[in-house]
Fold this protein.
Amino acid sequence: MVLDQEVSKPIVAWRDVRKVYPSGLAALDGVTLEANAGEVLAILGTSGSGKTTLLKLVNRLFEPSSGTIEVRGKPTSDWDPIALRLSIGYVIQDVGLMPHLDILANVGLVLKLLGHPKPDREQRSQEVLKQVGLEPSRFAGLRPHQLSGGQRQRVGVARALAANPDLILMDEPFGALDPITRREIQAEFRDLQRRLKTTVIIVTHDIREACHIADRLALVDAGKLVQVGRAADFHDKPASDFVKSFFADAEAVVLESPR
Ligand SMILES: Nc1ncnc2c1ncn2[C@@H]1O[C@H](COP(=O)(O)OP(=O)(O)OP(=O)(O)O)[C@@H](O)[C@H]1O
Ligand SMILES: [Mg+2]
C-alpha cells in the first residue's frame, strides 16, 4: 500500500509522548520525534531505555499515557487499530512465523488479511521472496522450522514487504544472527530499502548496524530522547557525556559509515 506522501511531512510523529506502565514506571517521558518519508531512522539506546515501547505506540500495540502519535498525519487514536497494523510492516527478532503454514503462505499472510485473491498473493509472495534472496522454487513450500535462522529472518522481511507498505517497523530484527550473516542481511536490506524508498524505523542497540543502515539516529536513555541526527553529528557534536560514552567504542564505525 503506497500512500501519497508529501516529502516534508513526517510519516510518523511522536509528540510529547509519555508512557507510564501500571507499575508506575515512566518508560517514556516527553518524547518528541519524527520519522520522515523515505528515510531509515534508527532508535538506539541501552536495554530498558524505551525503544520497543516507542515502536509499539506506532502500530497501537500500546497506547500512550499522554501525548500523541501521528501516522501519515493522523493521530493513532483515530486509526482503526487493525487497519493501522495491516498498513505497517513489522519485523521482530523471533520473526513470529506461523509454524503450520509454508513459507509462501507466511509471506502472503497480510495480503490474505487484506483480502487479496490467492493467485495475486502467491505471485506477490514469490516476488518478495526473490527480493530478499530466497529462491521461491526452493523455499516456497517449506515450513519455517526447515529454514535456518537467517533464512527465517529474510522471510520476516519478505512478509513485512509483501503488501508494499510505506512504513516498516523493525525491532532488533537481526539480533539473533551470527555477525557474518547479520552484516550480510543488513547490507542486502539497506540496498533493498534504497530501491523501494520505504520508510523504516529500526530499533537496535548495535551502533554499527544503526550507522550502516540508517539515515538518522535517535538515541534514547531512560525514556528520554537524548539526541537525534546523522551519525557524524553524534561524533562531532555529542549532546552530553552519555552520548559520548555510548559512542566511545564506535568512533571508527561512525567515521566509516557510508552516510
Ligand atoms: N508491558 C509492560 N509492563 C510494564 N513495564 C513494561 C512493559 N513493557 C516494558 N516495560 C518497562 O518499560 C521500560 C522500557 O521497556 P522497553 O521494552 O521499551 O525497552 P527497550 O529499550 O526496548 O529494551 P531492550 O533493549 O532490552 O529491548 C523497561 O523498564 C521495561 O521493563
Ligand atoms: Mg526492546
Q: What stands out?
A: The mean pLDDT is 90. The pocket of magnesium ion (ligand 2) is lined by residues 51-52, 171 (CB under 6 Å).
